[in-house]
Structure formats: structure tokens, C-alpha cells
Amino acid sequence: MDYSSLKRFLLLATGTFLLLLFAHFSFHLPSNPPFSRSSPFLFHSPSVNTAKPASRNHETDIVSHPLDPLTIQEINIARSILLSYSPFSSSPSSLTIHSLSLDEPDKSVVRSWKPGNSLPARKAVAVTRYKDKPYVLSIDLSTKEVVQLPVPDSGYPTMTIEDMMSAPWAPFSDKAFNATITARGVRMSDVACLPISLGWYGQTEEGRRLIKIQCYSAEGTANFYMRPIEGLTVLLDMDTKEVVEITDKGNGIPIPSSTNTDYRYAVTKNNRAAWLKAPNPISLEQPSGPSFTVSEGHQVKWAGWDFHIKADARAGIIISGLGIIDPETGTRREVMYKGFVSELFVPYMDPTNAWYFKTYMDAGEYGFGLQAMPLVPLNDCPRNAYYLDGVFVTADGKPYVRENMICLFEKYSGDIAWRHSECPITDMEIKEARPKVTLVARMSASVANYDYIVDWEFQTDGLIRMKVALSGILMVKGTSYTHTKDVPSGEDMYGTLLSENVIGVIHDHFITFRLDMDVDGPANSFARVKLTRQATASGESPRTSFLKATRHVAATEKEAQVKLALYKPEEFHVYNTEKTTRVGNPTGYKVVSAGTAASMLDPNDPPQLRGAFTNNQIWITPYNKSEEWAGGLFVYQSKGEDTLSVWADRNRPIENKDIVLWYTLGFHHVPCQEDFPIMPTVSSSFDLKPVNFFEKNPVLWLPPNQEKDLPVCTATATA
């Protein structure tokens, strides 16, 4: 390679890799001193309004609630304790900290705590590896006592930022890899690589942390995902960075063209057809400001609701201590102790050599919160949104700040909370309607190519909606085919031909929520209310059939495992066994499913063994502080020995107990051409809806909108 080529390679490779690895994986690097509030490797399009909310100085954060996340000061204390702990103190450089977060006090302690009381002892929980041996440690930040906690039998902790950043670079030190890239006709300066978790497929993959690397050509586009170097897979030892194996099954498969793959506005605005007119800008204006308040950094109040919210490196958003004011009595009533995304399972449906292992668990392998992108004001969140940051740690335990990770905002899209108008035949002039305004807590995680938008939406009528939206870029497969007529009859492409030489591979998304319900307190039960067709007795009625609701209370875990079925309708109630309404109905909340999907993989397929928490859409388990992650504490290269399915197989009693509801939201994705080169957002949701929780409609008190109360805005010219 001559000097000019070498110089070009170094400059372009450095720029390309930093952009792709840092921007797409959204990492903030720690600086020295021990944390940074922002990263020099965040890129924003100048054509998009990214008015930045004011930054917060987290150096001075103080703890006000037992569930507040660790502050920067506490992280530094925990790190210091770890580095002086035996055996780590003998070789601190051999210590890797995979996670460091709050070791939450016992639930009974948190529930009994009141504002103004002294805080319970602050503890941290650290997941580490020292000389390849894993440790799970509880650290008392006051006494400096360290207690070792149980370690799973298989698997490894969530990858660190450094793992995900360094692994794609490692193959470039291997001559055989470089020769393979060159043989495929790709310049080294255009290569972009991604770290891909490999699941578990037998004993040959045990004994060391492995990862697979696959690469793309970034020549001519920012959307390198659309230009795979198909069939090339590098098996890498994640700790030694040794290239274990290089497989190239893609000879003869061309690199797809970069034409029409770029999605950035700076590029697409110049290609827009003259007959296309974008909608005029729209914004929700609140002259009096938002109706919600955020106090002490994490405590939210809005329209009778109150809850604690925080960012988590693994789960993303955590909602805790959720309660609502009863409009009849003015008393606060408990609804949920804690809720969050526990795991994601994303299996691709291509069993060939370069694809079979793509069965991601995004929370346990990559960290759902670690992948959270700073939200874009005015586009991800509206004008009057309030932003919250996350404080996480790197592999050496130093804290860093993920800015604007969560936003809170009020939403009004013209929906109606309730209405009624009398028809003319009654001769009653009644026209009553109320606008529906909701409160949304939002985050967006960009797990490499895919973007997940997670909303927690709270309604004034007591309903809670968990919504997941999918966008971003497909993970595609290169092919020699340029038209469907080229595909031989009977050949399975495992997907859809989206463009010349590009196949969108069929895949699923499953998002499992853990919801620790405390409806009017922790003693709850789970009832399945089955709707069945009943026949009328002969001569009883002109009707021959009707529906009957039959209530069955689940006594054990297996009785509460639910596979949704359209033609076997049920309602699913979590209710308090000791509190009833004035007419005798138990107070409760019910699960209301929207569109969802179920896993259709063979239960003994290795990915499904690990993702067995998707075998049902609903599970109920007794509360257990250690059972938080549906795929297990250690997911990476795990065998599926520590999952929700394994725990629930114990068939423990759940009636009149402190119980946890697990719900899996699913998507089957058969790609189509509209998904190219970037996908329009699709979404689904499920609700937790009051069922006999209130004495009557809880939003009768809502006032209607009046013209005099609303702002009058004048449109201004826009560029």
C-alpha cells in the first residue's frame, strides 16, 4: 500500500469506525476525571432542529428516595471498595465491572418508608469478572462490607461498552481476515463491522467468551447495513481478541449497491419529488406549562398519578411505587410496585451458516439501557418535554452520563376521554365530550440497526399502556438475485427480496415486561375470566345462545400460564382479595392485549430454550427479588437454565400472595419493500386497565375544553 493510500485508509477508517461504532451504538466515553457529561462522538444532522435541553450537573446529585439510582459519588465509593477488595486488590487491572447499580432495599422496607424518614442503608450490586471468574457482589456503601451473592451456573454477564467497541476492531489485526476482505473487492477503508452475540449451540462454544463479527461496506452511504459482505463471519475470543475461525460462504454474492440507501434528511430532501408536499409543522402548546411535576430528580406527579422513575443500564426505564388518587375519597391507592422491560428476544429465521446464531437477547447481552440514544427534542419528544439522564459505568467502574435518555411529556392527539350526545328523538339538548390527555414516559434504544421506542403511557381514567414501537434499519442478507423471477422454484430465501441483491430476513421481536403488581397492597390473586357460549333452554328465548363469564382463580403458577387464543376469549385480572367496592366486587386491574405474536420455534430449538420466557404471553410468579430478568441474570452464552420458564416450573402457590405479572409483547416481521432503506415505525401495546378498582367512572370530573382556555397561535413562515 503506497503512502497516499495508507493515509486515506487511516483517515477514513478512523472516521468511519468512530461514527459507526459510537453513533450507532451510542456510547459516551468516560474521561479523566472520572466521568463525562457528553461525548465528542455524537453526530447530529444540521438540518434537524436539535435544540438541546439544559444539561444537569450530576456531580452534586443527592439521594432522596430509597430507589434513587446510584449517584456519581456513590459509584466512585463502590468502585474504590471493589478495587481494595480481596482478591481484586492484588491485580486491579484484571477486574472487569460489567454492571454497577443500586442494590435495592427489601420491598417491605421501601413500602414502609415515608418522605422525611431517614433513608435505608445504601448498597450497590456489582456484576464483575476477575481473571475470567464471575462475581456478583453486594456492597454496603457506609460500612464497606462486601457480600458475595450466588452466581449462575452458565452464561456470562452483559457485555461491557469496551467489549462492544473493541471486538469489531480485532479482526483487522488478522492477515487472513484482511486478505478475505480484499478478495471480496472491498477497500479496507470502507469496512464497517458489528459485534453479534452467538447464543449457545453446544459444548464447543463453552469455556470462553466468544462473539461473531460480520462486516459491511460503507462506501457511498451512511446506511452500511444495506451493503453486507455476505457469508463472511469471524469467530472471535472476546477476551484475548484472538480470531478463532474465519468462515466465508459468500463467494459470488455481490455487495449490494449504495444507490437509494441513504436515509438522512440532508440527502433525501434533494431527491424528493416535486409533487410531494410535507405536512405543515405541528406542535402541542401549553402556555401555562406542563401539568406534571418532577421533584427530587425522580418523583413524578400528574393528574392523580405519582411514581418514581429512573434509568437503568439493562432495563432502560424503571417505574416504581406507582399509585393513584381515588377521586371519590382523595386517598392514594397502590397499583404497581415496580415495572420494566425484563428481556427482549429477537430470533432470525434463517438457519444457514451465517445467520442461524442471530437470536439476540438485547437486554441481557447488550444492555437495553446502555443502547439508549439521547432523545432528539421536537422530533423524539415534543416541545414541553422534560428530560432525565442515566448514570452508568464503564468496565473500569468509572461513571458516565447518558444525557436525555428519558423524556416525560403530556400527549393530546385529538382522542376522546368520554362523550355522549342525545339523539333528537329524546328532545334533550345534551352534547358532552371530554378530551383525552395522557402522560408519556419515553425512551429509545438503538441496538445497532434496530430502534426500539418504549412508552409508558398513563391515562386519567387509571389505565396504563405499555407501548413498543419498532423502527430503524433491517438486518439484511446479500444475494445474487436482482428480481423475483431469478429465484429458482422451491428455493427458500428465508425472507423477501427488497432491492437488487438485498433480502430482508424474516424475524421475530419479543419484549417481556416484568410488572410487580400491588393492587391496593401486595396481597393479590390472579383470576382467569373465561367467556364461553351457552345455549338457552328450549322455549326460554327467541335467542339460542349467549356468552357467560366464568371466573377461575389460579392457585399455582402453572394455572396462570396463558397462551392467548382469539376463539377462546378470556380476561385476566390481578385483584386484591381483601378489598371490595361498595357492591362487593374485588378491586383489581386487568390485562388487555392488543396485537401480539407468539413464538413458533420448536421448544427444544437451542434459541427457544434460552428464550423459553416467550412460551406463554402471560405468567404469574410469586414475588422474588432475585427473579427479575426473564432470560436469567447471565444471558450471554447461557443454556436457558435460569429463566422465567424454569422458575415457574416449580408451580409455587400464588393465591393471595405478593405476585408478579409477566407479559410478552410479540411481533412477527416479514419484511417488505416499504421497509427499505429504513423502516416506517410499527407499534403494538397492551394495557393494565382498572376493573372494579373505582366505584364509578373516575374521569367524570374532567372539564371540557373551552375556547377561552386555549392559546391562539399564529403560523409563521418556515424554511
Give a topology summary.
Blueprint (H helix, E strand, L loop, with lengths): L2 H23 L46 H12 L11 E8 L4 H6 L10 E8 L2 E8 L5 E4 L11 H6 L8 H9 L7 E6 L13 E8 L14 E6 L5 E6 L16 H4 L24 E3 L3 E4 L2 E8 L3 E10 L6 E16 L11 E2 L1 H5 L19 E8 L5 E13 L4 E6 L9 E5 L2 E10 L2 E10 L4 E9 L3 E3 L16 E5 L2 E4 L1 E11 L6 E12 L9 E9 L16 E11 L5 E8 L12 H5 L7 E5 L21 H5 L10 E11 L9 E13 L28
3D architecture notes:
- This protein starts with a helix and ends in a 28-residue tail after the last strand.
- By secondary structure, the chain is mainly β.
- It contains nine helices and 32 strands.
- The model is unreliable at 1-50 (pLDDT under 50).
- The strands form six sheets. The chain has a ten-stranded antiparallel beta sheet with strand order 15-16-19-20-21-32-29-28-26-27. Strands 9, 10, 11, 12, 13, 14, 25, 30 and 31 form a nine-stranded antiparallel beta sheet that branches.
- The active site is at 362 (proton acceptor), 450 (schiff-base intermediate with substrate).
- Residues 284-700 form the Copper amine oxidase catalytic domain.
